[in-house]
User: Which sequence fits this backbone?
């Protein structure tokens, strides 16, 4: 409660001001609590495990792939726990870190009013970084004025909500590295851990994370993610998990070695001073070694591929590990059937012949893959991006594929342990867009006790459980247009028990009852009946089960039996259902249930109604008071903000003039994008062509575009007060950075080829020889060193959209064009990183292979060739590449 | 550099652009191999493909085209086209079907086993075989149990009414002249009376919902494409409907409809009269998922709601908000566990029966998706979204068994014609066969590629040992299955218990079956049984121990997910979410197909 009010007073002001900043649009009810805030209003003390933190993630331009996946991982309780606990440290150490994390968060929260403290090495870049973002402002402002002079701000639009979320804060600028504190090098894992810890340590339940460091490292280490293009969320998941595996294993290996030395010295120390407790001296080595496989324990399953050579009838079995399963889709199918099909028998013939060890040659064979060991978390990738030969590129499949809330696997081997393991759906990554090269990702995640939430970048919103089933995909209409652009893309199922399922379904049912009555759908037709005001708060009621309601089952259950259904305005989460005065008019009623005197009843009903009305009024009054308070603050802020805005705009205009760049380019890449929301409005139609003329200007990718629009219309005050935690470089670095990026005009990597290269990388990661890790590490360091210069460049390029329009154009239309990008300078660096899996072997044609290996045998061949330099696994790669691409082995 | 094509616009939903105008149903007769399917008995050929016109949205309700694909408003519950059929004349074939109970199919082996088994099953339902359909013509169903008969309070109200049993009471309000905001428009056919006169008693009426419309069709008429009457509701969608089998006559049909708003309408199409129940959600505020007339009851019907409640209504009574009455069992807070008993909010034995509801049971925490009465009218099978199948003794208002799907919700349920087996279909892509007497899962039927939305037995191809049933699903497929008691092929690891449940002739098993039967009758046993929760709630059978049944026929028969399946004497009827009503002619007689499978019709009269 306290935190909520606190935020209303302090932090919500920016929201109010930003809303008011659009001229002549002073909205009185700007600081209304968001649905999420309402949901959390009665939350108790914050738990320490992070399960009741609901932070959005800032989008830095097409980084929604990262946001959606990281959110899904965060809300996997065991995963989060492991990330937090992984490098086991002495209590002393962790205490220190905890306080550091908290203080750093205080910093970020105070940043709302005071300039950022330079508490980390990136502080300088931080102050700089504010400028590129603000720089975008005039661009979109002009765009918006050109298109629609005054765009009506839709309060319900996600853009608006995101803006408010960003303005409300607290914004956790994850631009620092604690990796040294963990005793690790800066890695994806350490930055992910930083984020998780910062979120958990923050005092607020809600806020926004700016995952700058994570993206920086991601882009530093992975060339394919450097472009501001639309990335594949599944590929990112794949990469992230593998990197975490690698980081974690590397760490524990190093620690083992070092602790061995330390242990030796320790024994010396011990011998010398037995008084000192050993725990202080020696790091807990044993647990570290045990711990290092936790990613495997969570996500890894084992597939057995049985291949029967048709010539010699020899059956060869091979076990392969997977971290996620990619399944082909059919029209009107279910996840169950996709998984079944995954394990269907498959003929290896013609170009796909199987190399039989027994006959010693390529033979026709039958192959089938079954799950031998079931993972605890089953990440299911629905292969919605498929190579179509007629269009010569990847296309998105809009097939209707239904997914149940609970799942068991049919395709297990006979000897599998616990073959009837029950899984529950806990997260869905949804891709919105018409094709693989553009669009938006969001995730819908089941939280521990707050039901399902929609995570759309900065925005977090409670949703009905039924909402989860909106993304089956609805096919295409007669004209070939998809009926719904939003389709589930990655499904996360986690193991559960039957009892847990029963419990949950029961509690859902309990809270669903009053919810259903609140539902406007049910009330509207009753207009002629009981007065049902379509009040303000009705629409925003959280619909998710709450723990309190579980406990209050009895009373709630009775509620339905009472004469009058509670009106939709009946106090929702504002009230504790256990408190009879607030929630249930029904309870006094129940006490009197033995009296059947009708008049008595009627009188009661009347009283009840009156009281309820009074309650409503009381509520409204409270809300109004809050609003008033907020409004006053808002006015105060208004002045500052306007000043800032003016200054900003002037500054930026000057810069733009200096740079000689047209400022209306925000829309250039928009044209190529299938932006996720038509309601974007400003740049969508009006200025499509305008950006094409600029040379080397900024093409802003859709997500950024959205963001920039927001900022353009209403630059939140903290942008100047608190330089946003991005690593956007100064605009005048632009020229340098784009050249250092090395993507020559035709160096555009179509995502397909990149995916492919990435696939190799990730596969080889698991196959890598022992020495390789060290090798890589060394090389990584090297490249890290010499790339320090260019690193900013990469970041610059990618995180903030300074992609030339020509690039964008090409990438979205000519996606499969073979690119010369492979030869580009930093690719060799990439090669170093990825090691001997030799990306250069790959002919450029391989673009779409990894996503649609089935479609063309030619590609299969290439694909298998790509692995060909590893004769050990040749045959299995072969199979994998062909149909059942188990992504990651 | 070239200009990019404009980004694809978000489609404005199915409705497209501009106002859609009211259209008429269309009928097609497509031919070709994709419009027929073959089972052992021969080839079924598509006779008619009747596409019901989807009505445009109500003018008052301009569909707020939300272009945001993530908009979080949840649409009102909707259902694909379901069909209620009404044949006025008593069905000869069904009588034949029941007579076939006498051993005719000597073709199958293991006759001794079967004989025993039949006896045990007869124990369970001996006096119930003269069932609803049997007595539909002559009204002779005195020996069949009628729900609520034992309650004098109920009988008083009933007793007052039927002065002239031949003259059925009609609802009060004229639906054509109604100014209710609930009903938007009624479009009767201009030649309605003439068409009704022409309608043969053997002809088939059908009631089908599509979007916010309900159509009354004459499926045996040459002009079947023209609806007899179309009712457009303002906002509410009819999700389910049912025709009263015992009150139907050439001048009277009692149709009951359940709506997405929770409202229920009793509609008499011949006189165009209606009455509205659960008005303004007086009794339950959630959507009605299924509604069916109580077996052998003229007035009582059962409705299931999305909040997991089952409510018995009397079509002629007024609604009254009800308070828990003294006969009700106190609500037992189940502390987050699935409900292993039925909470009786109002018992049918309650003495206050002046108003609706007649009975009110809270069965599940989740939405009830479907329910079905056993042929003898004693039992009720309830399929719910949480994945449980509950078997309930209707008259004792007691839960007998609770089974669970392999995973996911159960969508549909039906009984075998002899009442021995229950079929469910669900989100695990399976059709499951459950045995009533053995309280066990018999087999899982694997073959659908998506959720199963409707299951039905083909009574014309069932005898005492062989069962034919069909299922349709979201995968647009119709699957036909042959299930015979002895032929189940079981997985290697089939347990003894499982085996026993399949061939329920082992002495021990027979005892069990009988004991369960006696328990149904004696109250003392019942209470004992209800205490033993473990006996009621059955754990999920692991896959390794369950028999798997493959389909005999699987075919994609529509481009859209299917949602309803019905077997008629001369055809199979399917319907899909988009309103295609397809009638598939059975294989032609004399094609030699009849001999392939022991069929009951014809051989036995």
Assistant:
């Amino acid at each position: 409660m306290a935190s909520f009010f606190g935020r209303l007073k302090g932090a919500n002001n920016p929201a109010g001001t930003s809303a008011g900043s659009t001229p002549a649009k002073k909205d009185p009810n700007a600081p209304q609590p968001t649905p999420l805030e309402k949901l959390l209003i009665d939350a108790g003390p914050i738990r320490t495990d992070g399960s009741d933190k609901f932070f959005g993630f800032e989008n830095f331009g097409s980084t929604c792939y990262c946001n959606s996946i990281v959110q899904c991982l965060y809300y996997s309780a065991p995963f989060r726990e492991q990330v937090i606990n992984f490098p086991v440290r002495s209590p002393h150490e962790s205490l220190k870190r905890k306080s550091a994390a908290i203080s750093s968060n205080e910093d970020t929260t105070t940043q709302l009013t005071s300039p950022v403290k330079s508490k980390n090495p990136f502080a300088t870049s931080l102050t700089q970084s504010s400028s590129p973002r603000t720089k975008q402002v005039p661009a979109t402002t002009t765009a918006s004025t050109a298109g629609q002079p005054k765009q009506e701000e839709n309060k319900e639009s996600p853009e608006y909500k995101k803006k408010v979320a960003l303005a409300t804060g607290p914004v956790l600028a994850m631009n620092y590295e604690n990796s040294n504190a963990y005793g690790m090098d800066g890695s994806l894992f350490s930055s992910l851990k930083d984020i998780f810890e910062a979120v958990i340590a923050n005092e607020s339940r809600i806020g926004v994370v700016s995952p700058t460091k994570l993206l920086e490292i991601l882009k530093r280490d992975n060339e394919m993610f450097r472009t501001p293009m639309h990335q594949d969320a599944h590929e990112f998941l794949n990469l992230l998990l593998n990197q975490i595996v690698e980081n974690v294993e590397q760490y524990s290996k190093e620690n083992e070695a070092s602790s061995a030395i330390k242990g030796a010295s320790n024994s010396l120390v011990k011998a010398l001073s037995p008084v000192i407790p050993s725990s202080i001296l020696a790091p807990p080595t044993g647990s570290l070694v045990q711990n290092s496989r936790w990613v495997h324990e969570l996500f890894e399953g084992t597939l057995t591929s049985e291949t029967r050579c048709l010539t010699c009838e020899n059956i060869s079995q091979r076990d392969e590990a997977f971290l996620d399963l990619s399944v082909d889709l059919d029209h009107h199918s279910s996840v169950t059937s996709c998984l079944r099909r995954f394990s269907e028998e498959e003929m290896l013939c013609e170009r796909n012949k199987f190399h039989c060890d027994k006959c010693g040659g390529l033979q026709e064979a039958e192959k089938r893959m079954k799950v031998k060991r079931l993972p605890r978390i089953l990440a299911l990738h629905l292969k919605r991006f498929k190579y179509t030969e007629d269009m010569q590129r990847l296309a998105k499949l809009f097939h209707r594929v239904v997914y149940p809330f609970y799942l068991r696997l049919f395709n297990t081997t006979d000897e599998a342990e616990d073959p009837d393991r029950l899984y529950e759906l806990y997260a869905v990554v949804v891709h919105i867009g018409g094709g693989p090269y553009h669009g938006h990702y969001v995730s819908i995640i089941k939280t521990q006790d707050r039901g399902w939430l929609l995570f759309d970048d900065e925005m977090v919103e409670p949703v009905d459980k039924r909402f989860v089933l909106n993304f089956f995909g609805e096919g295409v209409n007669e004209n070939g247009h998809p009926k719904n652009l939003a389709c589930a893309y990655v499904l996360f199922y986690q193991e559960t028990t039957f009892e847990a399922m029963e419990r949950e379904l029961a509690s859902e049912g309990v809270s669903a009852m009053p919810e259903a009555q609140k539902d406007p759908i049910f009330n509207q037709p009753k207009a002629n009946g009981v007065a049902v005001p379509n009040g303000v708060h009705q629409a925003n009621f959280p619909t998710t089960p709450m723990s309190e309601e579980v406990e209050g089952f009895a009373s709630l259950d009775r509620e339905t039996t009472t004469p009058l259904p509670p009106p939709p305005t009946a106090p929702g989460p504002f009230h504790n259902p256990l408190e009879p005065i607030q929630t249930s008019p029904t309870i006094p009623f129940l006490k009197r249930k033995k009296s059947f005197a009708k008049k008595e009843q009627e009188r009661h009903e009347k009283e009840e109604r009156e009281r309820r009305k009074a309650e409503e009024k009381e509520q409204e009054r409270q809300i109004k008071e809050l609003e008033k308070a907020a409004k006053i603050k808002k006015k105060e802020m208004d002045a500052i903000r306007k000043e800032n805005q003016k200054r900003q705009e002037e500054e930026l205009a000057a810069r733009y003039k200096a740079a000689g760049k047209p400022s209306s380019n925000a829309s250039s890449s928009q044209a190529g994008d299938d932006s996720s929301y038509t309601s974007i409005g400003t740049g969508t139609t009006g200025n499509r062509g305008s950006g094409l003329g600029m040379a080397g200007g900024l093409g802003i990718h859709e997500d950024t575009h959205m963001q920039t629009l927001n900022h353009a219309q209403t630059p939140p005050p903290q942008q100047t007060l608190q330089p946003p935690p991005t690593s956007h470089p100064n605009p005048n670095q632009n020229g340098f950075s784009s050249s250092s990026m090395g993507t020559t005009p035709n160096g555009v990597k179509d995502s397909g080829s990149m995916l492919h290269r990435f696939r190799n990388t990730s596969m080889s990661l698991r196959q890598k020889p022992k020495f390789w890790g060290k090798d890589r590490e060394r090389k990584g360091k090297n490249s890290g060193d010499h790339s320090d210069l260019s690193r900013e460049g990469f970041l610059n390029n990618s995180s903030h959209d300074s992609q030339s329009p020509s690039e964008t154009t090409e990438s979205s239309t000519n996606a499969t064009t073979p690119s010369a990008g492979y030869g580009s300078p930093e690719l060799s660096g990439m090669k170093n990183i990825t090691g001997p899996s030799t990306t250069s072997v790959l002919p450029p044609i391989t673009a779409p292979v990894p996503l649609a290996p089935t479609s063309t045998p030619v590609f299969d061949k290439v694909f298998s060739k790509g692995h060909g330099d590893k004769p050990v696994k040749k045959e299995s790669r072969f199979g994998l590449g062909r149909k059942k691409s188990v992504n990651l082995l | 550099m070239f200009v990019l094509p404009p980004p694809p616009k978000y489609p404005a939903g199915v409705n497209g652009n501009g106002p859609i105008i009211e259209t008429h149903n269309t009928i097609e007769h497509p031919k070709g191999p994709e419009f027929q399917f073959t089972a052992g008995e021969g080839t079924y050929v598509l006779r008619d493909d009747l596409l019901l016109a989807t009505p445009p949205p109500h003018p008052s309700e301009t569909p707020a085209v939300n272009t945001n694909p993530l908009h979080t408003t949840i649409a009102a519950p909707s259902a694909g086209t379901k069909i209620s059929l009404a044949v006025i004349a008593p069905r000869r074939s069904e009588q034949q079907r029941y007579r076939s109970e006498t051993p005719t199919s000597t073709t199958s082996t293991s006759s001794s086993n079967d004989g025993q088994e039949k006896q045990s099953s007869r124990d369970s339902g001996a006096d119930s075989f003269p069932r609803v359909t049997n007595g539909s013509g002559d009204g002779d169903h005195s020996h069949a149990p009628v729900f609520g008969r034992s309650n004098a309070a109920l009988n008083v109200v009933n007793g007052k009414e039927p002065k002239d049993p031949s003259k059925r009471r009609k609802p009060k309000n004229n639906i054509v002249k109604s100014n209710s905001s609930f009903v938007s428009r009624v479009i009767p056919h201009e030649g309605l009376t003439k068409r009704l006169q022409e309608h043969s008693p053997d002809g088939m009426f059908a009631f089908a919902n599509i979007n916010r419309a309900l159509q009354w069709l004459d499926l045996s008429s040459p002009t079947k494409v023209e609806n007899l009457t179309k009712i457009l509701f303002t906002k509410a969608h009819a999700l389910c409907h049912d025709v009263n089998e015992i009150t139907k006559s050439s001048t009277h049909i009692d149709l009951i409809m359940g709506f997405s708003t929770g409202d229920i309408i009793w509609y008499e199409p011949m006189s165009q009269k209606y009455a509205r129940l659960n008005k303004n959600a007086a009794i339950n505020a959630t959507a009605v998922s299924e509604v069916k007339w109580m077996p052998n009851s003229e007035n009582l019907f059962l409705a299931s709601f999305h909040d997991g409640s089952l409510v018995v209504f009397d079509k002629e009574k007024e609604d009254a908000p009800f308070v828990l009455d003294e006969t009700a069992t106190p609500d037992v807070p189940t502390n987050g566990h699935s409900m292993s008993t039925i909470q009786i909010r109002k018992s049918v034995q309650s003495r206050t029966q002046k108003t609706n509801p007649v009975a009110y049971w809270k069965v599940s925490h989740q939405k009830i998706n479907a329910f079905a009465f056993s042929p003898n009218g004693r039992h009720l099978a309830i399929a719910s979204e949480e994945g449980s199948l509950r078997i309930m003794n209707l008259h004792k208002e007691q839960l007998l068994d609770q089974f669970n799907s392999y995973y996911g919700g159960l969508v549909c349920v039906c009984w075998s014609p002899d009442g021995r087996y229950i079929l469910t279909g669900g989100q695990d892509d399976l059709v499951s066969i459950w045995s009533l007497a053995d309280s066990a899962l018999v087999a899982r039927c694997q073959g659908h590629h998506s959720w199963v939305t409707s299951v039905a037995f083909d009574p014309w191809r069932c005898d005492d040992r062989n069962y034919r049933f069909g299922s349709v699903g979201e995968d647009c497929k119709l699957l036909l299955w042959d299930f015979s008691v002895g032929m189940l092929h079981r997985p290697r690891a089939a347990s003894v218990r499982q085996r026993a449940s399949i061939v329920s002739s082992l002495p021990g098993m027979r005892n069990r079956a009988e004991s369960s039967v006696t328990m149904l009758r004696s109250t003392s046993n019942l209470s004992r049984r209800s205490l033993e929760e473990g006996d009621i709630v059955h754990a999920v059978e692991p896959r390794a121990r369950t028999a798997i049944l493959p389909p005999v026929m699987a075919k994609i028969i529509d481009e859209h997910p299917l949602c309803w399946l019905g077997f008629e004497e001369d055809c199979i009827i399917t319907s899909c979410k988009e309103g295609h009503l397809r009638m598939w002619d059975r294989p032609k007689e004399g094609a030699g197909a009849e001999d392939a499978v022991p069929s009951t019709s014809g051989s036995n009269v």
Notes: The CA atoms of residues 155 and 161 of chain A lie 7 Å apart.
